[in-house]
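Please fill in the sequence for the structure shown.

STRUCTURE ENCODING:
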């Protein structure tokens, strides 16, 4: 037991001695370490000077809540008695995390990239602007098939070539990998934040605004399609019955004018006008119900539009992230000094092991 204690004491002493030797060894190398720190600081300052600032555009919106629509549900039940489905269902694929995933989908990102914007008085797509400010065509000088590719405004997406599809896919992957983030500001809230980081301030701003608008328009077109069809059908039927009612009213007046002084013994002469009067009453009842259902359908359509309520939008100048020269010098010097110390310690350790 005593020997074990002595071994432990000797082992601890050896560790202390070894650490002391290493510290003295590092102190003997201080001129080299200082020189390497200075070199690292210079490299850090150079990086801070060369590195372009990153602009961050942020847009936040609130998801529409479908709760509290009992009055509309009752109206929908009334309309369903006459064979009409006015919608007003839940969000489904357009609610919660599904919507955030939709905003980073290839279809939505590419559609936003192909949106035309006005940049310095010139109309061009965001995809074309992305290629220009990243100077990608300078890297394609030896690839003429890529250098000739352009994404012009108002061009049909279905006419794109294989090279255009491939290039657009590369831009999509580059943006969604690190630049575009979509998340909730708080898990308990329904507020979603879209952030876009880019070296180009205008691109970051326009892209965030267009991705939000693209998803909102897609929602309106998809979710409200049935409601719009119902409104269109009801409007057509209402107009038809209204025209028929006007014709019947004119027919009643014409029938009465045709026989102003009817012989009481010839009551059959009243039949045409009475028939049209019955038809007028029936048309009035039908028109009343159609107008009622048309208004209910319009309320349902207004309720479903839009899904996104914008809260904050990016305003120029955008938030800028840039490594300062002082920070670059400290980081560069610190990293280079750390690596130099690790190199000397590793070298000393290998020498001791070989001994």
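FILLED IN BY: designer on duty
SEQUENCE:
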């Amino acid at each position: 037991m005593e020997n074990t204690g002595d071994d432990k004491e000797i082992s601890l002493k050896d560790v202390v001695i070894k650490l002391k030797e290493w510290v003295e060894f590092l102190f003997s190398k201080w001129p080299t370490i200082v020189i390497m720190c200075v070199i690292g600081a210079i490299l850090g300052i150079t990086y801070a000077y060369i590195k372009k600032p990153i602009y961050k555009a942020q847009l936040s919106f609130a998801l529409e809540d479908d709760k509290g629509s009992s009055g509309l549900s009752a109206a929908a039940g009334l309309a369903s008695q006459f064979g009409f489905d006015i919608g007003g269902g839940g969000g489904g694929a357009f609610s919660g995390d599904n919507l955030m995933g939709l905003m980073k989908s290839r279809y939505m990102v590419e559609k936003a990239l192909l949106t035309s914007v006005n940049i310095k008085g010139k109309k061009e797509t965001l995809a074309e602007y992305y290629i220009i400010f990243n100077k990608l065509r300078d890297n394609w000088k030896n690839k003429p098939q890529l250098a000739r590719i352009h994404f012009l405004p108002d061009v049909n997406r279905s006419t794109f070539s294989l090279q255009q599809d491939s290039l657009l896919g590369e831009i999509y992957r580059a943006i969604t990998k690190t630049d575009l983030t979509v998340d909730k500001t708080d898990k308990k809230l329904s507020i979603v934040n879209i952030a876009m980081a880019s070296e180009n301030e205008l691109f970051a701003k326009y892209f965030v605004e267009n991705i939000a608008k693209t998803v909102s328009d897609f929602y309106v077109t998809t979710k409200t399609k049935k409601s719009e069809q119902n409104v269109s059908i009801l409007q057509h039927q209402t107009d038809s019955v209204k025209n028929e009612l006007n014709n019947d009213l004119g027919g009643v007046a014409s029938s009465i004018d045709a026989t102003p002084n009817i012989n009481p013994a010839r009551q059959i002469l009243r039949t045409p006008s009475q028939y049209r009067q019955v038809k007028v009453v029936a048309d009035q009842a039908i028109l009343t119900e159609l107008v009622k259902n048309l208004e209910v359908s319009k309320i349902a359509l207004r309720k479903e539009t839009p899904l996104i309520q914008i809260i904050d939008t990016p305003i120029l100048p955008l938030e800028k992230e840039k490594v300062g020269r002082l920070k670059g010098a400290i980081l560069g010097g610190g990293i280079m000094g750390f690596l130099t110390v690790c190199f000397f310690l590793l070298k000393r350790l290998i020498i001791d092991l070989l001994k």
